[in-house]
Amino acid sequence: MKVYIWNPSLECLSRDLLEKLQLQRLKEIVYKLYNNSKYYRQKMKEKNITPEDIKTLQDITKLPFTTKEDLRELYPYSMSVVPIESLAEIRASSGTTGKPTISLYTHRDIENWSEVMARSLVATGIVKGDILAIAYNYHMFTGGFGFHYGALRVGVVAIPIGVGYTQRTVMLLKDLGVTALTSVPNYALRLAEVAYEMGIDPAKDTKVRKGVFGAAPWSEEMRKRIEKVWDMQAYDMYGLSELWGPGVAIECIYKQGLHVWEDHFVVEVVDPKTGEPIDIEEKGELVFTTLTKDAIPLIRYRTRDISRILDIKQCECRRTHRKIDRIQGRTDDMFIINGVNIWPKTIEDVLLKEPLLAPFYQIVIDRVDALDRLTIYVESKTKLSDNEKSLLARRLEYQLREAILVTPKVEIADPGTLPRFDGKPKVVIDRRGQV
Ligand code: DLL
Q1: Would you say the pTM of this structure is higher than 0.90?
Q2: Residue 204 Cα, ligand 1 centroid: separation in angstroms?
Q3: Which of 120, 340, 341, 372 most suits a substitution to test ligand 1, by most atoms within 8 Å of the C-beta?
Q4: N or C end of the chain: which has fewer CB within 10 A?
């Protein structure tokens, strides 16, 4: 297969020059935050450091961490270091206690995000001449627009196909001669299933031969299945809204880890318990410092995603940017339903507000027809009639949808019927398995 590179002068920059560029940008960003962000100035003062203490890249470990809690506390605008009128876009993630985290973008942010997305698409062989169906949602989520911006930058034809109209999507994939697909990984299997039901063989009757999947964990086994049913090459894309969205790291055609765009991000791996740096190749929590983010630059952002930095000097694709392994899990209890991040606590908050319910519940996640399904079993305080159960369940489904942005199925259980736990309760049962 041919290696395509969007921006060779930066993607293949020598390590020496790349690290010099990183250090220069790191110094600039630390200086900017020290002088413009009350929050970071305070945090640096607590650690007794000033921008002058950053002399080498290794000095990054002297800097304080930033967490998701910090972002929530400073909701909605207080993390920003630019005036509101210079913003181009505002996005919000699904939140834990009703308050989402806010992502702010200046025009420069959109420029840089488009650049890393362009590089990422091209790294997977999606180039001018391709027709890309973007089956991510285009609302507040970063998936749809992120890929869209990247496609426009490269000159790939973008189809904002979105999610939800699966039969129509299959028809359009076929009729429009789509060559590349991007979505949450399991949606690629769902599309294939629906295609078969419509008498369409995705491998033979469509031209889709490349796919980029991310926003949720997926296994090698799932990759094999996707590649087989579609007769495509499937690549892993990593990103998070706090760092623009998708486009932080991407697999190149060699599929041996994901290149992190290191002229835009410094990647570290730390021990999730102690915060101490971890050796190369060892598993730990990914931490990113942004080097070019404009509205909300972040220092040492704790992602809670588990991975490792791979000890590979030079990739066969010639890119010099270091690679991380595919995401192996998380340090917290967040789970992802069809690309939407959900914390059990948000569900609990809704359930415990309802006076008819007892505080015993279970969250069950299944995969049905290649889509994630969320069912919440919760006990009522007193025995209810079938009609009362049904009314209560519908009301809770509505309230939960408002809180978690996914519609679950709610089942009301009779008092005393759900399991009790002596120790840490096992409230989330994920039956999706590896695939
Ligand atoms: O999921 C951005 C994105 C969109 C990435 C499209 C890739 C493709 P958030 O909604 O903020 O942003 O969720 C970020 O999703 O911390 C991981 O836990 C998880 N995640 C993202 N990509 C992957 C991946 C987008 N390739 C959170 N493998 C992250 C495993 C992933 N988990």
Answers
A1: yes
A2: 30
A3: 341
A4: N
175 alpha carbon – ligand 1 mean position (Å): 30
Q: Are 180 and 207 a contacting pair, CB within 8 Å?
A: no
Q: 304 or 346, which is more confident?
A: 304
CB of 361 within 8 A of CB of 353? no
pLDDT tens for 384-421 read: 999 999 999 999 999 999 999 999 999 999 999 998 87
Residue 177 pLDDT > 80: yes
The phi, psi pair for 268, rounded to 5°, reads -130, 160
What per-residue confidence (pLDDT) applies to 219?
Answer: 85
What domains are there in the chain, each with its CATH number? 1-331 (3.40.50.12780), 335-430 (3.30.300.30)
Give the pLDDT score at 98. 62
What residue ranges in 296-368 does DSSP mark as E strands?
Answer: 301-307, 323-324, 329-330, 335-337, 340-342, 357-368
Tell me which residues have their CB closer than 6 angstroms to ligand 1: 93, 136, 142-143, 214-217, 236-241, 245-246, 303, 305, 327, 330, 341
How far is the centre of ligand 1, averaged over its atoms, from the C-alpha of 239 (Å)? 5
Q: Which of 45, 37, 117 is nearest to 79 (CA)?
A: 37
